[in-house]
Each structure stands twice: as C-alpha cells, then as structure tokens.
Amino acid sequence: MKSNLYPLQFQPILKERIWGGEKLKTILNKSITSKITGESWELSTVEGDVSIVAEGELKGKSLMDLIDDMPEEILGTSVYKRFGKQFPLLFKYLDAREDLSIQVHPNDKLAKERHNSFGKTEMWYVMQSDTDARIIVGFKEDSSKEEYLKHLNNKTLVSILDDVKAKSGDVFFLETGTVHAIGAGLVVAEIQQTSDITYRLYDFDRKDAQGNTRELHVDLALDAINYNKVNTQKIYEKKTNVSNLVVDCPYFTTNFIPLENKIEVVKSGETFTVYMCIEGSFEIEYDGFQHSYKKGDTILVPAEIKGFVLSGNASILEIYIS
C-alpha cells in the first residue's frame, strides 16, 4: 500500500462511568450527551474499542487496519521490531466527578499468564482540579498482605493508603502493583500500556442505578499488589519551546512542551509520536499539511513523518517509545 500518511486524529471513544461527569464537554469540548461520561479513549486498539480516523484522506479507517497495512510507517522500525503489529499504548482523558474505585493493575508477567495481555504501567497528568481534590497512590508506610487484608475486611483500607493533594500540572507515574484511585474533582490525561486489566479492591460500597454493587477482584489482586511505600509524583522542568522530560520508562517516554511561537521537530523513524494538547492551541506543519489542534485533542504522528513544525501557544504532552 502506498503511504499517504499525515498527522492523524481519531474519533473519541466515550465511556459512561458511575463516577463520571460532564467536564469532558465543558473543559475539553467532547461531544458527550451523558451526565456520567468518565472517559474519552483517544487512541486505542483494545479489542472492541479500536480508534477510527476522524478526518482527511484516511477518514473512517481503523488504527488496526493502518498498522496492518503499514506497520513500520505507522509504528516505527524499533517499535515494530519489539511489538509486531500491536499498538502498545492507550491514551485517555478522564473526568472524575466522584472518586474512582481503589484498584491495582498487574505486571506484564501476571497479565500475560492470566489474561494474555500487557500489564498496565500508567501516568496521569492533572489538567484541572477542584479545591482539595486528591488522589490515592500506594501505602503510607510499608505494609503487608496481612495488614492490607485486615483493613480491607474492616473497611478501613483508606486509612493506610497515601492520600495526596493534586493540582493542575501535577504528574503521577504509577508502576504496576501500585494501589491507586483518582479522587473526585479531577480531569486527567492518562497514558498507559495497552491493557484494560484492572483489579478493583474497594468501591466505597456504592451502587449503580439498578442498585447493584460493582464486582471486586480481591483474590486476583493479592499477588499483584506492591505492599511497599512508593514515590509516584514526578517533578519536571517547564522550559519553553523544548521537550522537558517528565517520565522515561521501558513502556513510554513523556515530555512536556510549553510551546510559544514555533519549534522544528526532527524524528528518527524508529517510533511514532503522540501529542496531547492540554492547554491552548497549536498547529502541525508538514509537507504542505497544516492543521490546528486545541485543548483536549490527541494527535498521532506516524513514524514515517520525520520532520515537521509545531507552532502556536500551547502546553503539550509529547509521547513516544524509546
């Protein structure tokens, strides 16, 4: 197939959640109609939720079809060699009107054995926070399976978990095994391995509209949890017009770009690049292609595109695989 690639935007896949709200519309301009929309999946190849190109010559094509037809051109030589025709990351925006459940994700080994899936290492960038909004990340002090179970059974689990205030611009990096929950009043950009495996530990005993509680995965979680205290918050620089490193892990690298005016970007062709616009607006100029993006947009730049210009005034997350 002849390549006619350009920077790609996809139709958001909107998800209702018991804890969701309306900020994905009011803050990020997503076309939601529900008052409990919790997630916008921006870039996904999760089975049943595969992203579809939203505009341009390739409009209507799925990300999986594009990768199947042009694996190296889309993914990059290095990513294709490592992952084959799998898109290894999942990109989302989340609106937590209420607290999310307290949960944990398994590592690659457990996820492969149990679910034939990747594990779920992830990071959060806080886009908006209400006063006193907070997240739960790990244990206050080193714990144990026995102590954890005692508090879980007594419904006092929250008392031994680390509770951190979260404000706009904060970044949290969650390795697999970290017990966590996004708190009420937060809008978050999430970058994670391609996985939809979540073990729910505690859901505050809430019930859905039908009066049902959600399933818990207490037994599955026991061997997945890291019971030691962890440091999840990332401090990073914010120098204008450069890529400031935020997270560098085996699964993805994330940079923060405060864009003022324009910068030229040169890539190697080894990996795709994704841009998430978290504030302001910007344009990508490439081979006569020029398109504007705004807050809440997510753009996949195929690996084949090795030189382009970013211009505008925006705060942008830049993600690729090293």
TrEMBL record:
Entry keywords, A to Z: Isomerase, Metal-binding, Zinc
GO molecular function terms listed in the Swiss-Prot or TrEMBL record: isomerase activity
InterPro entries the UniProt entry points to: Carb_Metab_Reg_Kinase/Isom (IPR051804), Man6P_isomerase_Firm_short (IPR014628), Mannose-6-P_Isomerase (IPR016305), MPI_cupin_dom (IPR049071), PMI_typeI_cat (IPR046457), RmlC-like_jellyroll (IPR014710), RmlC_Cupin_sf (IPR011051)
Residue span(s) of domain Mannose-6-phosphate isomerase cupin: 244-320
Domain Phosphomannose isomerase type I catalytic: 9-116
Protein name per Swiss-Prot or TrEMBL: Phosphohexomutase
Source organism: Flavobacterium gyeonganense
